[in-house]
Amino acid sequence: MSENAPELTAELIVDSAVPRSPVISPDGVWVAYVVASIGRSRRPVSALWVAAADGSSPPRELTSGTACEGVPRWAPDSASIFFRSDRQLHRIRLDSSESEALTTWRGGIVDHWPLADGEVVALIAADEPSQEDERRQTERDDAMVWGERVPCSRLRLFDLGTHELRVVDGLGDRHVVEVVQRPDGGPLAVISWACPEIDPGTFTAELHVVDPGTGAVHDLGRIELEACSPAWWSVHDAWRVAYLAMPPPASVDGFAVFDVTVPAAGAAGEHRNLTAGMTVCPTHLVQVADGAPLALFADGLDTAIYRLDPGLQRFRHVSTRDGRVDSLTVSRSGEVVAALASTAYEPKDVHAGPPGGRLVRLSDIRPNLRRIRWGTQERLSYKAGDGLDLDGLLILPAGKRRQDGPFPLITLVHGGPYDRHADEFNAGSFPPGQWLATAGYAVFLPNPRGGQGHGYEFAAAVAGKVGLDEWTDIVSGIDLLIADGVADPDRLGIGGWSHGGFMAAWAIGQTDRFKAALMGAGISDWGMQAATGELGALEAGLSGSRGWEGPGPHRHDQLSPISFASKVRTPVLILHGENDTNVPLGQATFFHRALCHFGVEHEFVVYPREGHSIRERNHQLDLLRRTREWFDRWLGDPASDQDRI
Description:
Blueprint (H helix, E strand, L loop, with lengths): L9 H5 L2 E8 L5 E8 L8 E7 L7 E2 L7 E6 L5 E6 L2 E6 L6 E2 L7 E6 L5 E7 L4 H8 L14 E7 L5 E3 L7 E7 L6 E6 L4 H4 L4 E5 L6 E6 L5 E8 L2 E8 L10 E6 L10 E2 L7 E6 L7 E6 L2 E8 L4 E8 L2 E7 L6 E7 L2 E8 L6 E2 L15 E7 L5 E7 L11 E7 L19 H5 L4 E6 L8 H5 L8 H15 L3 E11 L1 H12 L5 E5 L5 H7 L3 H8 L11 H4 L13 E6 L8 H12 L4 E6 L9 H19 L2 H7 L1
């Protein structure tokens, strides 16, 4: 890298664009995808692009990027693309520069799936507002009634010839979340919830088979939590539906692939776990029209493609890709796949190729980032105190080697806890590792137990004891880096977002070895999270109890950072979105008030209009700059260290 490499600025990160939602055409010739800016305006916009799957021609922009365009899906003949734009269904032909608006549904289109006959599109859409609804809105009667505040989305069938939109009545008032048609043009597999509220919606998920011609519905019964990605396949001329979901007992966010026979008549069979005992974790399942499903699996720091073996009814390894791969999509034949892929120094782009062969990069959305002088990213492998094998990443300060240490070290804990740090490009909009490494910090990205990539048992290890073993896993990695001369023990920081924010708050209540912490959208009280969070009942499984289980103290009190606030001496930067419903703002406010009471140095920042992720451009810029300034203040500015050398 040239000594004249440009500086990494917050604007360079936030004003970049990223690819999303790739989908390969049924004939395997084209890949459509969305390009959207990282830092959004209050009215986000995106554009639809298309590229040759073999990389033989450069990508071209199909739509102008003046509206919020997304969720592309191909017509069965691979000649046109259906997509959502400003909550309506549109279509554009490959040989055209103009798109056609197909719907004006006042309830808005949530999702869509073109059916095999080429004449009908299955839509998920809420009911249009009634005159009474409109009267209330006019009179500003905006009382929020639980069970009514989120409209139910129904399965509807849209006739492309007549533009008639009819609802599938057999599902009643159930909230439809996902649909896939049988590859031979037969019925639809449909996942629904009892209501649109995430909790209890995802706890009441059911699987149905719907005849698109008659609207007849056959129920396949209750399915496990957070079910998604349904995929048809057949064995011995019997059709089955596989899907991703959480195995029981549903106390953690670990996923498995389940499968059920679709009977010609009568009750469905047992919903079987096809991934039990595997040491990798399924992340995405896709249907293959002419064969068995393919799936992505988190495999340590990398990502693997597996194919379901119909005979063994188990997944077989096909290939492993360095870093992170997601959003897998496959051609009708199964011979060509496309996905988003990223490695240590290459940002996420669209790639395509054979499942077992080389994937060709099709998009090159951020070429300017190649001129930046990045910190060296290393893979780490080490053991926990109890001997469990662990992995993670170390990013050295830009332009430095290990022997140049010790360096101020910032540990960034991932969210979830069922997530991971893959060996991917680490320069996103949340305080990313390279943002800190280019400022002179060494950055440790640990993968403690509770995360994905090492099988279900590894993920389930934190059930009922969140913050305990995963915390000592993180400490083991920090101690290793100190012993190796990489980390300065007197200049340690810790931070994270969501579950990572919880771990940062937990850490500073257990030790005073950190000189600064960042708590981003973190949980301070598990009892309050079970009461008010989107998936409170699920998260109660992490902390082991709920507040209504009789007089305390409860298990969750022992695992809540708020219970240890009196021991905190570390300066804390608290960041939170005002409208966060996943981890409500009250979690940050509670911790802030406790720190005020005990006189702990801290800064409390609330971002208006933001949810669990910070999306507005100016807020993202503030977050990046404020993060660096905070650690510079308490760990000593590494740039000043360089000036003194």
